[in-house]
Amino acid sequence: MNNIVRKSLLALIASGVFAVSFFSYQYIDGDTPQIQKVNKPKSFPAAATAPKEVEDVLRKAMPWIIKEGPIGGVDKGKRVSDFGRPFKVYVGDLAPVKTLDPSEKGAVTSIISPKYNWVYPLLDSTGKVVSSVVIEKDLEWGDWFVSMSAGRRAFELSLNGDKLTNYLADRGIAKAKETKRFGISLQGMHFIYINAAEGEYLLPLDLMTPENRRELREVLGRPTIELESRKLYPAAEALAKIIEWKINANVSDDGSPLTGPRPSGR
After folding, report:
1. Distances from the Cα of 206 to the Cα of 2, 23, 209, angstroms
2. What is the pLDDT of residues 115-136, one digit of tens each?
3. Any idea what the Cα angle at residue 16 is, between residues 12 and 21, rounded to 5°?
4. Which residues contact 124 (CB under 8 A, 6 or more apart)?
């Protein structure tokens, strides 16, 4: 299996779907269905406003997505009718982990790269989230394009606004000075970084079902990140686990497996 196909397969498993097809919606031609008007919720947790150029890319692709379904599919028996407001998700970069001291203040921000994607919820005719798509930027050409699904769980597990405020308050954190969501896509994990007066924290969000995570481990032939979803960790503790996993699992800086045997120990 070549590297491109292998990475595509891993990413599809990480998005919650075991499949082998991989392509991007970039050009839409011919007769396609029209986007239906649906009863959208006013907002979603962690919703944001994307630049017009990003939304225009999705609008052009939507008729084809409605007709064929998003990459990675939708809930069984459901059809896509429209899209909702997106997340901004920064890309995790594991390159610095070998030199990081997890206990150092701000260390976790070193694995959050400046690059980011937009994740849009895909809605059925009732306004329910049935899947999602990721809008990525081609680093060589600078163009935005529609990539694969991040799955429905990306939105089910979301915490932002009042929900995040209440979640933190229940755990003794009065107010977050800064929050930032980032992902290690080929591991099917998102994280919310929280900087507060009480300290720095990471909140993992596992986008995969237990079955999909088992499949990913089988394909990788090595462990995946083991952090409990929606459990608030001190940033130093969570980062130490990520560093240990990165070294022991012998993965590249985007979370995909390197060739060759796994190292023993750290």
Report:
1. 27, 24, 8
2. 998 988 888 888 888 888 888 8
3. 30
4. 38, 78, 79, 80, 81, 130
Region 19-43: mean pLDDT is 37
CA distance 194 to 209: 25
| Segment holding 258, helix H or strand E | none
For residue 204 the two structure tokens come to 């993992």
Concatenated DSSP letters of 102-143:
TTSTTGGGGGEEEEEEEEEEEE-TTS-EEEEEEEEE-TTT--
pLDDT at 191 over 90: yes
- Compute the distance between CA of residue 134 and CA of residue 74 in angstroms, rounded to an integer: 14
The ranges assigned to domains in the chain are 3-25+37-249
Percent of the chain whose predicted confidence (pLDDT) is above 90 = 17
